[in-house]
Amino acid sequence: MPNSERGSKASDEELMEAYVNGDDAAFRALFERYAPILLRLTRRHLRNDELAEEIVQQTFFRLHGARNDFRPGSKLRPWIMTIAMNLVREHWRRTKRRKMTSIEVDTQAAPEADLMPLELRQRSELLHVALEKLPTSQREVVELHWFQERPYAEVAQIIGTSEGAVRVRAHRAYATLKQLLVLEIRGDE
Amino acid sequence: MTSVNNRPEDDLAERLRELDVADVDARSERMEHLFTGIKAECQKSDRTVAGFLRSRSTMARRLIVLGVFSALAITGWYLFPIVGDHARTIQWTTSLVTFCVLLLAAMIMVTRPVHLPELPRWQSVCLVCVALGATVLAAFWPYPAAQAATHGHDGSVMAGACMGVGILLGVPVYALLRLVDRGNAFGSLVAAAAAGLAGNFVLKAHCSVPGTSHELLGHASVAVLFVLGLGLVHRWMPSH
Fold it and tell me: Residue A79 sits in which domain range?
């Protein structure tokens, strides 16, 4: 397929520049490249498929609206990640304010849980619970540093803080996660 | 691959890797459905005035807002009589300059690009509080009472008229800022404060009714009403 072929060869920035110049196929290529990454990111944060998809849609919608701000030489990945993280934060803020307990109930079910083997499902559930116990600021860092494999400098750029602060948050988050997982496993036994 | 330093490489790493694998779900029909939805939303947005304005570059959006503000200010300044020379005190000038600076700050906040990390909430709240404070403070530097006899206005009666004019003038400012806002958190609240500031700027420049009570009831109330009315109501309504 020409789109896939082109999408696999061109860099993010080339695709974005093509899209800014009116090439719709480049937008599709960017979507195919980033939507799965963003879905994983949002689902880990929200644990709700519908919400995660809505946030991914909003991320691309905002990317479309902001396309004329893209300058040659800029990196696209931090752009997309920042938009998505801003939306996730905004969601949490609104949810907290409105005390939407119904959503909290919905999020108890892990996505695709039935498709996983029982042991993996339990392990995944424990880790999800541990991640949810982290403060949002630390969870964001784990998400970007571990799951998205971004260096500290880029994580700092995405969440709008200093590299030092990111390092501290990551250190605390990994330490807390280890502690929580040990406690969860003991409790499970 | 980007170099990533200090990632945990032990049993925690193994668990995190499992979670990453467990969460992969990129079925093509679901993705196609998602993409169709996004394309439809983008196309729908492109056909609207708001969509057109929001998709301009940040520099262009700021210039549009500044252009409209300047056009309104210059038209108003020359079409309607401003306060007499005797009332153009240092305090009067300071009030107008403060309103302008705060209006500019609000415009910069509202037009902030969405690909940058959002500003801490306290900054937006702080701007709104300072804006409200400035309008209240300006009311304590009213039009000189010595000139009251020459006008014969009843301050409290005229307060209603001033409030109406101020609100009327603030609405287009609020609308314009909402039109160029790409969805910043607290954007509506900041735009409401800006609308109140714009109303106060015009009233301060043109209104010659003396008295602090008049300015509190007729001028400062405009900003308060905008923030409480438009800003908070809009903020608490469910988002699209």
Answer: 1-109
Closest CA to B101 of B127, B129, B137: B127
Q: Report chain A residues whose CB lies below 8 A from the CB of B38.
A: 31, 57, 60-61, 64
Domain total for chain A? 2
What whole-number distance in Å separates Cα of residue B160 and Cα of residue B134? 20
Select the highest-mean-pLDDT range: A3-7, A46-50, A98-102, B156-160. A46-50
**Contact state of A64 with B45 under an 8 Å Cβ cutoff:** yes
Q: pLDDT per residue over A47-96, tens digit each?
A: 788 888 999 999 999 999 999 999 888 889 889 999 998 998 888 877 76
**Residue A85 shares a structural domain with residue A125:** no
Which pair of tokens denotes residue A161?
């803080």
Predicted model pTM = 0.77
* Interface confidence (ipTM) of the complex: 0.75
Give yes or no for B116 touching A (CB within 8 A). Answer: yes
Among residues A59, A74, A109, the one where a domain terminates is A109
d(C-alpha A16, C-alpha B127), whole Å: 35
From chain B, pick out residues whose CB is under 8 angstroms from the CB of A174. Answer: 8, 12
Judgement on whether residues A80 and A97 belong to the same structural domain of the protein: yes
Residue identified by tokens 């969805």 is B183
Q: Residues A35, A101: one domain?
A: yes
Q: pLDDT tens digits for B39-76?
A: 999 999 999 999 999 999 999 999 999 999 988 888 88
Q: Is B97 exposed, middle or buried (0-12, 13-18, 19+ CB in 10 A)?
A: exposed
Q: What residue segments make up the domains of chain B, in order of their start?
A: 61-236
A35 and B25: CB-CB below 8 Å? no
A137 to chain B, closest Cα gap in Å: 13
